[in-house]
């Protein structure tokens, strides 16, 4: 499919059919992930592909308990909505996220993106050099993975809420302590449809030459 179409219609898919995802499809997505940029080309990631039904149930249980704590905390921290349309969009996102929390194990494949807990801060004679967070070197791989899945007609969602109990995930899957769980991505054929998701207008978030110079004609 056309790359721009794929990017534009990549959105969070949280309801999956029972149709299997093949190893070849998973590998295609992992090869795309592996091509992602990383700081100094360190390629820090480890990918953990979970297919086993008991392990998916185990992950689903941990995920739901994490989400049960996250949802009320998130709702309490959500600022008032500007209008009814915004409130409705938020209600739908929460309902969809809640659905995933209760059905994660139904995704035929769950992929974990792991990041070693290393400091990448360099120092020179003047002190530490802040060249950005090491986590920036793993999320492009996650996005590449999800885009490749999109091209294959497979839905995904980038999730992180399970980090609340990531020690339990380490114990379940034998992940060494030195790895952080950067993302958990369920994948499967969507029950709904891909489509262009609503976003803020470009004009509200884009500046030209100097911060504050905006153009209203860009949509
Ligand atoms: C860093 C990050 C963490 C996220 N964590 C979760 C999560 O734990 N659970 C979940 O259901 N969605 C999670 N999401 C998905 C977002 O809710 C989703 O990308 C956003 O609502 C836009 O969805 P849309 O593209 O369908 O409009 C996360 C997304 C990002 C980028």
Automatic annotation (TrEMBL):
Protein name in the entry: Nitroreductase family protein
Pfam families: Nitroreductase (PF00881)
Domain annotation Nitroreductase: ranges: 11-189
InterPro entries: Nitroreductase, Nitroreductase-like, Nitroreductase/BluB
Keywords: Flavoprotein, FMN, Oxidoreductase
Annotated source species: Tepidiforma flava
């Amino acid at each position: 499919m056309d790359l721009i179409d794929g990017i534009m219609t990549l959105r969070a898919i949280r309801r999956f059919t029972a149709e299997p995802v093949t190893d070849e499809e998973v590998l295609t997505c992992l090869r795309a992930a592996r091509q992602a940029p990383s700081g100094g080309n360190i390629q820090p990631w480890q990918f953990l592909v979970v297919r086993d039904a008991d392990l998916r149930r185990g992950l689903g249980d941990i995920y739901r308990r994490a989400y049960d704590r996250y949802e009320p905390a998130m709702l309490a921290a959500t600022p008032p909505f500007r209008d009814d349309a915004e409130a409705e969009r938020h209600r739908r996102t929460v309902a969809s996220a809640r659905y995933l929390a209760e059905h994660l194990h139904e995704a035929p494949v769950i992929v974990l993106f792991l990041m070693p807990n290393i400091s990448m801060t360099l120092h020179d004679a003047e002190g530490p050099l802040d060249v950005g967070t090491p986590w920036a070197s793993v999320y492009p791989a996650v996005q590449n993975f999800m885009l490749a899945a999109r091209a294959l007609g497979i839905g995904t969602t980038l999730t992180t809420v399970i980090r609340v109990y990531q020690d339990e995930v380490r114990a379940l899957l034998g992940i060494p302590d030195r790895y952080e769980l950067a993302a958990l991505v369920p994948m499967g054929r969507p029950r709904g449809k891909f489509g262009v998701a609503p976003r803020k207008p470009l004009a509200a978030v884009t500046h030209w030459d100097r911060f504050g110079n905006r153009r209203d004609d860009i949509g």
